[in-house]
Amino acid sequence: MSAPSSPLGSVARWGLNLFAVGVMIYLFLPIFWIVGFSFNEPKGKFNFVWQNATLDNWREPFKDEALTDALLTSLKIASFSTLIATVLGSLIAIGLARYSFKGNAFLDFVLVLPLTTPEIVIGSSLATLFLDQSVTRGFSTVVIAHVMFQISFVALTVRARVRGFDWTLEQAAQDLGASPMRTFWKVTFPLILPGILAASLLSFALSLDDFIITLFNAGSVSTFPLFVNASFKNSFSPQINVLATIVLLASVALMASGTLVSRAKSRRSTR
Amino acid sequence: MTISEPTLDPDTSRNESTVPARRSFDPERLGLGLLLLAGALLVVVGTGIVTGVLATLALALTLGTVVALIGAAILGGPEVRRKIAPYGLLKPGMLWLALFYLAPLVTLLRNSLSTLPSRFAVKADFDWNFGNYSTAFTDFGGQFQRGFGYAAVATVLTILLGYPLAYVIAFRGGKYRGLLLGLIIIPFFTSYLIRTIAWQSLLADTGPIPNVLNDLGFRPILNALGIMDGDKILNTPAAVIGGLTYNFLPFMALPIYVSLEKINLTLVDAAKDLYSGSVRAFFKVIFPLSLPGVFAGTLLTFIPASGDFVNQQYLGNPNTSVIGQSIQNQFLVQNNLPVASAMSFVLMMIITVFVIIYSRFFGTDDLA
Fold first, then answer.
1. Which of B76, B234, B312, B365 has the greatest CB tally within 10 Å of its CB?
2. Residue B1 pLDDT more than 80?
3. How far from the centroid of its chain's Cα atoms is residue B5's Cα?
């Protein structure tokens, strides 16, 4: 864009930049609170009022056993559901992006529906299904519920990533004598893998953080968000802040390494 | 509803008249038919419309559709295989959605028309009891209004905050665009609940934000605007809306960024030459081109916000209760499944009508 033509324009430019910085600070305010209070030494059961700085909470991040168990349960649920949803969702994405076929508009519509349904409707409707069929709600019903909303998410994300994919490459491989199977694993799969990995990482995060749908279908199982919700009334330990910070750091590290790897790859391929 | 156009295969001729007459069956029709049949069977079994022997039969038939598809692929030539391949790829995921998305909506509808035989019964009996819907509207009308009202205000606020943010990153971020985008996402890698609880502490009467606002002398203005209630922010509608705005801001900022990033900047320069003025150039060129992002962001923000109850639970008071909370309370605490189901179903119908009207005008292409 060209340089500002008037002093007024310059003020407007800086005003807008400042506003954006303000919005960024707004986005990070609660994060500062969460990380900051992981270094607090609370009086009593609730870590809501600042007392003294301490490193004790970080020395014993897993001191709160029930909390640690809840986080492990969440990680287990997210692993199972992401694995299933990534396979099912990627197959759908390949089918939709690779082929033109009868009924694809309708099937596409069905796929978008879960994303345009409020979580509370998904959670409560699934719970009525399990109640009607006398299925005890617990670990597996939570996995089922998470897979359900992850499928659409994975399918649409992967499809968006493979939309620009050059499918004639497959034709070329087969013309050179590769079998369809070999073509898929040697040509198609490596090219769409980054999109699949990115989608599965994000859907893992969705599962880990899900509260509303899980609340309706967890039965007696406690996940990290469910435990935190209950803690608000019983006792809010600083370990909650510590574990939340660890999850945050791990996610940022994963995201950063993913970006760096793909950047290095694209640099290598353009050379 | 406009849904993204499929990638056209150059060698696939979809023109019916060119299909040779000697082929007695259309593999695509077979694939689609088997997929829809299997989905319908799973809905019927999942909802318990058929039980016992019939259910077993239906399940066997579902399995049969899978076998038939595989059989057709083996017996048919490469052309047939290519035509039914997409149905095979879509089938597992679509059947999962049939059983765990569509079937639950049917059981939800049935429960909403049922009556609990006794106060402590877990299962309700289906008897076309439309009374649940009148209870939903008469007892929880205010909750519906507040739920949608808060969501609407929060959606407008996310546009007001998210658009300038996306604009600055897209047009002034330079080589740091990726990093700045990452910064928008990072806060959302901490738990939704903990972030909302953090706001609870930040906005609490003795918390930092009301103190700072008081010290800076903003209190009279904020009181006049109805944002602060005396020296309180927490437990007011403003706090609930603020929490919603915060939690859904990235869902607005990211789609707007995506559509801004696509804009060809030479267009803007051309516009400036023609209209002579950045402001006019913005409203004549950039803003119209970024509207798909705003529309996608609106859906991604308004829909989840209208059913949300976490922000209300932590930042509101009993007078600000919203529909999501009433559904949760009736379902899980009061154990009043029929009324909870009726409210849930109404919520979904209102959202569906909204989405259909909305996408008629703007399309859903940029949702993903």
1. B312
2. no
3. 21
